[in-house]
Every structure is written in C-alpha cells, then in structure tokens.
Amino acid sequence: MKSPTEVGAAWRSWWMxxxxxxxxxxALFFNAISDIDSGHDSNLVSTPVPVDWLVALALLLxxxxxxVLRGVMKQQQALLQANSDVQELRLAHDQLVENLPVGxxxxxxxxxLFSNWAWDEQVxxxxxxxxxxxxxxxxxxxxxxxLLQCLERSERKQDTLDIQYEIVNENGKRHFIExxxxxxxxxxxxxxxxxxxxxxxxxxxxxxxxLEEKNQALAKTLGELEDNLQAIVTSLVKVIEAKDPYTAxxxxxxxxxxxxxxxxMGLESRxxxxxxxxxxxxxxxxxxxxxxxxxxxxxxxDEEFDLIKLHPSIGYNMIRNxxxxxxxxxxxxxxxxxxxxxxxxxxxxxxxIPLLVRISAVADAYxxxxxxxxxxxxxxxxxxxxxxxxxxxxxxxxxxxxQALENVLRREQLLPMDAAA
Length: 421
Ligand SMILES: [Fe+2]
Prior knowledge:
With 421 residues, this protein is of the alpha+beta class. Helix content is 61%, strand content 10%. The chain has helices at residues 4-42, 51-99, 117-122, 131-138, 141-157, 202-241, 250-264, 269-280, 291-294, 302-308, 311-319, 329-334, 355-370, 381-394, 399-411; strands at residues 103-108, 111-115, 161-168, 174-185, 191-200. It has a five-stranded antiparallel sheet. It is elongated and about 160 Å long. Bound molecules: fe (ii) ion.
C-alpha cells in the first residue's frame, strides 16, 4: 500500500500529464479550425473531417479521464491519511495502557478479558496463562470468594466497584490491593464490560503503620518526659515548702483545686495540662525570699511584704527561658493579679488577666484561707467561699471561677448543698 506522500507525488505526475494533453489538444483543435477556414476560402466542396480533429478529441477524452482519475486518487489519499491517523492513535493508546503504572483490566461474563502488564505483574500472570485463573490463584483464600462475588454483582447491576483485598506472592508476602471499576457502555447504551484498575497500597499502608507506631512511641516518650518533669518540679516545690511547715502541700493542693475548677468549666485537656504544671510551680519564686520573712509567725512589715511580693517576678525570671515552661509563665507571674487592678506585680486589669491565671488566683486564695498559717488558724470551707464571694463583689476575683469552685465543693460535699456562701 502506498504512503500518502507517494500517492501525492503520483497525483502531481498525472496532473501534469493531463495538463500537457489539454494544451496539445487545444493546439491541434485551433490548427484544424484554421485548416477548415482556409479550405472554405479556396474550395467550396465539402471536405472530410481532418485528422487533427480526431487527435484533439482523443486528447480531450484522455485529459478528462485523467481529471476523473485525479479525483479518485485524491479520495484514496484522504482515506490513506485517515487510516494512518487511526493506526497512530491506536498505537499511542496501546502504549499508554500498557505503560500505565496501575493494573488495568476489563471484566465481563465472570471472566477477566483484558489486562495490561501492570495487572499481570500484580497477579503474577504469565502472558499465556488464563487471566481469571491467575487472579483467583493470586488472591488470598479468605478474600477470593468475596472478590469474585463483588465483581459479578457489579457486572450484573452494571454498577461501580470499590474493594480491598490481599494478594499473596510466591514468597508468601502479602500485598494490599484496592480495585475500583466502572461499567462501560457503547454508544447505544448497551453494557460492554467493567473497566477496572488495581492500586497496590502495600507501601502506603506500611508507611502509615510505621508513622502510627512512631507517633505512639513519641507520645509515650512525651508522656514519660512530662511525668518526669512534674516529678522534678514537685520535688523542687517540696524543698521550697519545707522552709515553712505551714505551707507544706500548698502548691499541690492549688493544682488539684485548679484542675477541678477547669474541668467544671469545661476547659480542654491541653489547657488543663498547662494549668497543672503552672499551679504546681506558681510559688517557685519563694526560693528567692529570705527564710526569716517567709516563715515569720506574726504580721509582716511593709518592707517585708514588699519582699514577699517579689516572688512572682523571681519565679517568672527562673523559668522564662525554659522552653518546656513557657506556657506556665503567665500563672507564675500573675497569680496575685486581681481583676480590679489591685494585684501585683504588674497591676493588670480585667481581660488582661488570662482565664488560667484567674483560676489559679481563686484556687490559691481558697487554699490559703482553708490552711492553717503561723499567724492564724484555718477557715472553714463555708467561710472561705463566703470570703471569695466578697472578693467577687469587690471586683477582684472572677465570679464564674468562684461559682465553679463552689459547684465542685458542693459536689464533693465539702459545702452543704443548701447553704448560701
Ligand atoms: Fe503566690
């Protein structure tokens, strides 16, 4: 079969030949006319048709045939071109399908009819081996019936398919395969087959499993680190509180009250974690206060009280450069701040004081009142809550936080259920 280029060259040759024939025919025709005209002038007797006429007629017929032939050849050239385009497209399609990195297949009448090399690789199929048999041999026994039933059901219902199953290779290694398929119809809407593709998720699932294991190990290590950190801080706080037997256990109790208030108020676990560590170390700055001031049994002078008021700033400076304690610094520095601006060290007001700090302030004040000190006996829970309510009325403590503490105490039966504080 000639190529389109060869056909084009042939057509040009034929066209030149037809053109030449037309020129010669026209020349002979005019020459014959001139002979007749000259014959008429010299002799009135009729003359036979000149040979040149016949030759011209023959040439015209030949030229016409060549023109017709040209049309036919042009059509042939277009057909050849279209055929060539179709072949190129088919080749490109076949190459695309064969080189796709996912397994492609078609399924109809319970059989796999077509597959690409990637599908053959996935099911370990030799090119001469029946496809359906190769698939069923490769799929793990526990998944085999389910896969076949799903394929047949999708074909019967002409519906999509999405299924996961395992393939076991010759070495016993399992591959996790996901198959998705869609029904394919012809132009008339008649069902042709299921067109499916297989994705091997083994590597993906393996990475996911590794990540989950690493995350669990990381979370465990982080939990252990936090436990160790809390143990270290607790030990440090106990050393500080050992200076004054009247404050022993204060920080841990403030931590416990704060956590209960936060839970009552519905705070998130992350905030409660910050609150736990922050309240545990809230008085850590007392390590910088002279023992004689810290443990003085009587009332303090103004100068001594000014020294005591330094402990939030001292504690803040101790931990501000420790990344693990960064979120605790507001509680350490501001737990003696008050909403009406009467607190210290920065005289913050209202919304300048974060909620976690407000909670620590209420818990700290409550524990201070309900604990025995060198200069006074402890107050009852009822009186302590009453004092907190007075502070709320003065605008120094958060009413919602005090209410949450009251709810906790009532629930724990530390306050009478019907008593007004
Ligand atoms: Fe304090």
